[in-house]
Amino acid sequence: MRRLRRLLLKRAVRRAERAFVVEGAELVRAALAAGSPVESLFVAHGAGASGGVAELVAEVHRQGGRVFDLAAGVLERVASTVAPQPLLAVVPALDVPLDQAVSGRTLVVLCAEVRDPGNAGTVLRSADAAGAGAVVFCGETVDPYNPKTVRASAGSLFHLPVAVTPKVTGTLDALGALGFRRLGAAAHQGDDYLKVPWTEPTALVLGNESSGLAPDLAARLDGLVRIPMAGRAESLNVGVACAVLCFEALRRRQAEVG
């Protein structure tokens, strides 16, 4: 249980052990459906009797994973939420090298210093829903395996390739060398997103929630893109902006094929 707690709380432990925790039957089911092996499954006291949980326990046993039935109150002391799910599972890290994640993709989303775990999870979910090819977590961006990010992704973490890279600048250089046009999302500058040619290989770069894209990235970007706003809002949430831009890219690709 100490290891489980450390995986929930510490990014350095998750990175060193190449493992993370998923919470709840739906996320455990998503992991298994994606072919991600469950190393260990922890079942809250009394939860194993329900049909859905029993099926997951049987599947984890079938795949050779370990199942632990917890005493009353134990899971509540370990879980990262006030009202925890009745299941916690330890699964291996999913990220792959950058070139493998983006190979053959038309649209890649790059998180450059996105710090809020809920926003990062929404980016994953939006990118997945809009058919983006991969999501890259760069530099000081929140860990994709942060428990809040995993929950907010609603299973999308298991649906599309994810890469984790140490520096934004180096990642942008690598994407440029791989033939991607690098477009930074900005609140008030750049081209109207409806006029951008989304059908060529593009890396959509999302900056920090409060400060946006760092000034030192300008030389490594091929342009900026903005979403014109009719109201008085200063800007859009980064996850919402990601959804708008990715779905426009999807619409444009579908229109070209159709």
Protein model, in words:
The chain is an alpha/beta fold and 258 residues long. 37% of the residues lie in helices and 19% in strands. The chain has 10 helices and 11 strands. It is elongated, with a radius of gyration of 20 Å. The N and C termini lie far apart (53 Å). The model has no long low-confidence stretch (mean pLDDT 93).
Concise structural overview:
This protein has 10 helices and 11 strands. With 258 residues, it is of the alpha/beta class.
Summary tags:
258 residues, alpha/beta, seven-stranded parallel β-sheet, four-stranded mixed β-sheet, 11 strands, 37% helix, elongated
Number of helical segments with 4 or more residues: 10
Instruction: Please list the strands of the largest sheet in the order they lie side by side.
Output: 7-6-5-10-8-11-9
What is the overall shape?
elongated
What kind of sheet is the major sheet? 7 strands, parallel
H/E element sequence: HHEHEHEHEHEHEHEHEEEEH
Number of strands: 11
Contiguous low-pLDDT stretches (5 residues minimum) are none
The termini sit apart by 53 Å
Assess the beta-strand content as a share of residues.
15-25%
Helical amount: 25-40%
Q: By helix and strand content, what is the structural category?
A: alpha/beta
Q: Report the mean per-residue pLDDT as an integer.
A: 93
The gyration radius over C-alpha positions equals 20 Å
Blueprint (SSEs and pairs):
Blueprint: H1 2-9, H2 11-17, E1 19-23, H3 25-33, E2 40-43, H4 51-62, E3 66-69, H5 74-78, E4 87-92, H6 98-102, E5 107-112, H7 117-129, E6 134-138, H8 147-153, E7 162-165, H9 168-177, E8 181-185, E9 191-192, E10 202-206, E11 223-226, H10 238-257
Helix pairs in contact: 3-4, 7-8, 7-10
